[in-house]
Structures are given as structure tokens and as C-alpha cells.
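User: Please fill in residues for this 75-position structure.
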């Protein structure tokens, strides 16, 4: 069975790339999903989706922070 939080992490991670505000939710959902999948002893799937969502969330968060700091420093 596939973990729903893995799909949620992937969707939020992809949405976090253009909308950095969603990045913390993608990161939290990805970490939560990976912990549940590891604790399920093989019953849950979705490790790659959760990992991709986590990475996309981290990229979105870093882009958001760099863009915001550049905007604050340049103005």
C-alpha cells in the first residue's frame, strides 16, 4: 500500500518550487512519510515520492530564502 503522505510531499514539493511558502509543509510531510515508511517494515511504499518531495521542498525553501534576502538587501 502506498503512503498518502508521500504523494502529499511530492505535490507540495513541486508546488514549493514556484511558491516557496509551501516549502516547510513539503519538508515536514516528506520527513513524516519517510519515517512512517521505514517503520512499516515493508508494508508501505512511496520512498522515492517522499524523498523527491523532501528535496523539492528544500530547493524551494532555499530559493525562497535567497530571493527574499536578495530583495531585502537590494532595496
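Assistant: Residues filled in for all 75 positions:
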Amino acid at each position: 500500500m502506498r503512503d498518502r503522505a508521500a504523494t502529499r510531499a511530492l505535490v507540495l514539493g513541486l508546488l514549493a518550487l514556484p511558491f516557496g511558502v509551501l516549502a516547510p509543509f513539503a519538508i515536514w510531510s516528506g520527513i513524516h512519510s519517510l519515517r512512517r515508511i521505514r517503520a512499516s517494515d515493508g508494508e508501505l511504499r512511496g520512498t522515492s515520492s517522499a524523498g523527491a518531495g523532501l528535496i523539492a521542498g528544500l530547493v524551494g525553501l532555499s530559493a525562497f530564502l535567497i530571493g527574499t534576502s536578495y530583495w531585502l538587501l537590494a532595496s
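For context: The helical segments are 4-16, 23-39, 47-74.
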